[in-house]
Amino acid sequence: MTARHSGERLQDAPVAISALTGQQLSNQGVSSLADLSRSVPSVSLNQSFGGYGKSVIAFVRGVGQGDFLPAFEPGVGFYINDVYQGTIFGSLADLSDVDRVEVLRGPQGTLFGKSNEGGAVRIFTPQPRGSESGYIQAGYGSYNRRMAKGAYDATLIPDTLFLRIAGGVNSIDGYVDRIDYACAHPATAGTIKATKVGDCKVGSEGGDDAKVARADLRWIVSPSLEMTFSADMDDDRGEPSAEKLLAVNTAATGLTAANSGYGIAYDSRFITNNLSTYTSYTDQKTGVSFPAVNNVFSWGVSHALNWRTPWGVQVKNTLAYRKYNGEFTEIWSNAPIQADDNYFKPEHNQFSEELQVLGKAFHNRLDWVTGLYYYDAHTELNDFIYLPEFSFAFYGKDPVHDSDKSIFLHGVYHLTDKLNVEAGIRHTSEEKLYTFNRYLTSIFGAVPAGATIPGFEHNPQSKASTDRNDYRFSLQYKFTPDLMAYVQYATGFKGGGINPRPSGISDVHPFAAEDLVSYEAGVKSEWFERRLRVNVDGYFSDYTNLQLSIPVFSNGAAGSTVSNAGKVHINGAELEVQAAPIKGMLINASYDYLNYDIIDLGAAAGLAGGPAKGDLAPFVPETKFNIGAQQSFTTPIGVITPRLDWTWQSKTYSDAANSPLTLQKAYGVLDAHLLFETADHKWKANLEVKNLTNQAYYLNKFSQYNTAGMVVGQPARPRTVFLTLQRSFQ
């Protein structure tokens, strides 16, 4: 692993880190980042609900980000081959062809910098080695899931030029049925007309169709210099996220107004008792229609240089450009009566470069690394906000410019062959500029060309700047080659931004960066000839200047205001165990405990929709436990390996206010695998059953109960069965 920018054993690094190889990911059925959080302590990674598109809700040790808008910075950094992914939208990386994944817990403010307040998730793809090897794999399963992928590693010029190409397709049908309400319930449909007769199913939600491709060209220029050129593409076209209506507040202002013109009221009649929804993407009252999509197309190119200079230092440089275009719709009402509909088309491009110089000094007692980082991104948030309950709609076209420059220095000094001291510092300068363009439409009456929402006539701008230093200090002592202990002090931050959902011009304002100071102690150990690995750590974090987003309902529209307030103490413990007690058996387990203690909320105390003392961190369970076990049996034709994985977590809330309407009670999920590999290692088969017990639970919930008047939830996919067959070429 390379958590400190140089290769070292996982057990030798004085940092809380989990690392999984590509084979481990495959055995556990981990195909996306959302699957990863089950087996990694203190990590919560979930696909967001429909209103945030293909985003990942990411929290590590209670700190992260759940809002996709570019006004916010990610609280957890995502990297693919050391290239930073600038937004949480579009970061649900495919993990079907990776070399390894490293998850670093706790602030990584010095070595990684930008928006690594909670931690960092690093994905590494296999590098070309000229092995003339590859594989093809195909699979089929529940909900008409179809998958095919492959990769090949070739030598173009012996000992000099190598190429690896990989690609695949993966599609699955939706699991929440969209039902035409007037077709299914004509007697209570009012003036709403049926669009189907007989079979009332008009579509589904939760389906996906993704195509990925990647090429890496590795050029060994000389024994001391090599370069890697990479290009990748991900075309992910899906149905809207699976969603259900869970509760209705008929007294909410928005719903009272929405009832006009449909002949019926928006109420609990639209709540279903199964995996179905009455969502309609056309407003029959006005004729306005929305595409039922949830798409993102992304691509990128990069160049990595690694030069071992004649002067005893190593130079590494990573240059990258990435771009994506997204499109998704959210019908908050989940009904044919429209109320608060959103359509988004985010566009993003980013350029980044990181230069690292590594070396040794003082007769190899000091390992040092220094570097420069540059990031420049442009995002344009194109949206259409449709509020028919208030006869109001507007188009948004908000450009956002985000830049980051930093310099860092980090060193490890070997005081003795057992005792090491580590120190690091990074200076970061960030700036974010947000411009609000809000144009009225003529759907509800004529408006002058170019007319804006009142107060937004001059396309107001707001800028947030962050300038700060982050520090890291640790002591590490190796009692034996297999037993190490460490203590650590580290800081991190999440950059400032601009309130992105103003309900009026007075709500256009910046907010400052969050701050995190962490104290940690841990022990890493291996026993019985390394058949047993036990890693344990405990931490205390001082979390201040929280970016609190408080919902508001004014000027005829739901909005929010974001301010910095509060102080939270976060303390917790993490345990990871891996054991191979007998031949062919492997057991892995993890446990984490997190106490989120709100000490002070400052000006945010008592605000409706905000947190209160005693509340849990959003999306984060207080306790999570995972255990997996497998046993291999050798037969004359090959090896058979059954495996079980069980994950249990305590209750969670999907909002900072811990509303009972967003509560997900404690639950457990059991997965099963049956793997087979032939004796010649050419064929592999994997029978996978996810959610074996068919446990019903929600990935997240979103409440607008007191504003727009509804609560929606994203149910998890029920039990699925999937069979894959792989042919390897050596």
From TrEMBL:
List, for all copies, the residue spans of the domain called TonB-dependent receptor-like beta-barrel: 257-692
Q: Per UniProt, which keywords does this protein have?
A: Cell outer membrane, Ion transport, Iron, Iron transport, Membrane, Receptor, TonB box, Transmembrane, Transmembrane beta strand, Transport
Q: How does it sit in the membrane?
A: Multi-pass membrane protein
Q: Does the keyword Transmembrane apply?
A: yes
Localization terms from the record: Cell outer membrane
Family from the record? Belongs to the TonB-dependent receptor family.
Q: Which Pfam families does the record cross-reference, listed alphabetically?
A: Plug, TonB_dep_Rec_b-barrel
PANTHER family reported for this sequence: FERRICHROME IRON RECEPTOR-RELATED, TONB-DEPENDENT OUTER MEMBRANE RECEPTOR
Coiled-coil positions: none
Q: GO CC terms for this protein?
A: cell outer membrane
Supply the name of the protein.
Answer: TonB-dependent receptor
Give start and end of each TonB-dependent receptor plug domain: 10-120
Q: Name one GO biological process term.
A: iron ion transport
